[in-house]
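Complex 210.
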Amino acid sequence: MSQFWDPLQRVMRLRRADEAREHMEGTDRLPPGQALTLKFPVLTYGSTPSVKTEDWRFKVWGLVQEPKEWTWADFLALGEKTQTVDIHCVTRWSKFDTTWKGVPFQAVYDQLMPKPGADYVMFHCYGGYTTNMRLDELLQADVMFAYEYDGKPLERDHGGPMRSLVPRLYFWKSAKWIRGMEFMNENRPGFWEMYGYHLHGSPWLEERFS
Ligand SMILES: Nc1nc2c(c(=O)[nH]1)N[C@H]1C(S)=C(S)[C@@H](COP(=O)(O)O)O[C@H]1N2
Ligand SMILES: [Mo]
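Predicted structure with molybdenum atom bound:
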């Protein structure tokens, strides 16, 4: 049988054409060294935590005047927003136009009184993952705690019930199964940062490793 009529070959050819077209259309949106994917790869170090929304809590501690803790319902009541953004993984895939619903970082921040010098934040996750960043990165309007992806509750593999989303930085900074934030006066490295990933992690500056 000629390869042209093999249905599987045909599907693969169409998929490659699709990827090529997306790539051509989006070159200005693609950071250096990245390639577009239409899939949504799962990247998890270790096992996948299972957290029910009834049991889920969000805590804030460290350099704040008053530590805080929210239940699922109280946290969602802080505010909501839906946005479509591009995401960029340090393993060189990018994905355009991902749509998320969540609580804006600013809505949570409005409830807090950081102490002087609290210029850095560590995200803490169920399962033990951590990632650090500067507070000024988090005050960008597109930073959120996301609980819906593409109009559906966030899948467990992608960090459900709740993950952070910091789209301007490499995707390892978007912490899955988030359980809280620690305010700090120094940029202490998180999990991947201790293994040599960049403390800042801008895809546009190709800050992959320290
Ligand atoms: N808690 C937790 N968050 C995490 C990770 C992880 O292993 N554990 N992996 C990070 C990495 S390296 C990437 S690229 C993204 C992957 O998110 P995804 O699996 O939804 O694509 O999550 C980030 N957040
Ligand atoms: Mo990653």
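Residues 41-45, 89, 125, 127, 129, 158-159, 171-172, 174-177 surround MTE (ligand 1) (CB under 6 Å).
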